[in-house]
What we know:
Number of helices: 6
CATH topology of the domain at 46-149: Nuclear Transport Factor 2, Chain: A
Strand content: 15-25%
Largest sheet: 4 strands, antiparallel
Helix content: 40-55%
Mean pLDDT: 79
Number of strands: 4
CATH architecture of the domain at 46-149: Roll
Oligomer: single chain
Amino acid sequence: MSAISLATPISFPPNRSSMRTLLWGIALLTFTACQDKKVQSQSENDLDAARNFIQAALANDFKKASQYMVDDSLNRNYLDVTARAFSHLDANNQEKYRGASIRIHQPVTYLNDSTTLVIYSNSYKNDLDTLRVVRQKDNWLVDLKFLFESKSDTTQNKPG
């Protein structure tokens, strides 16, 4: 086994062959770095964003679900927690979630022109949950922070 010496001289100016190799290496690194960037999928409207997110999550495709979600550290953490919980379900339950249909319940609440609350359930577990969908730069995205941090039950009108 030969050792590489740190004292190996580097010739300047570099020859054409080494320059070409260096340029191809930089181009490859740049191309690879560009491929790693997250691409957010476009949804036509708030309900479409909620449906796309829920459908991907029910199918255990959390990478796809993240494309319909506000991209910040807290949302990514909440999605990771959900994905881990889903992975601990037995195969039968996972299959039932994959086959479940989405139910959007009324009322859909429009807080303003860029924020909507969507109450939903699925046909396997008819548990009501609420998603906040926000418009950012003409794209509708799910914000999980509302679901995890909401102190009140937004699916029912209960006396305070």
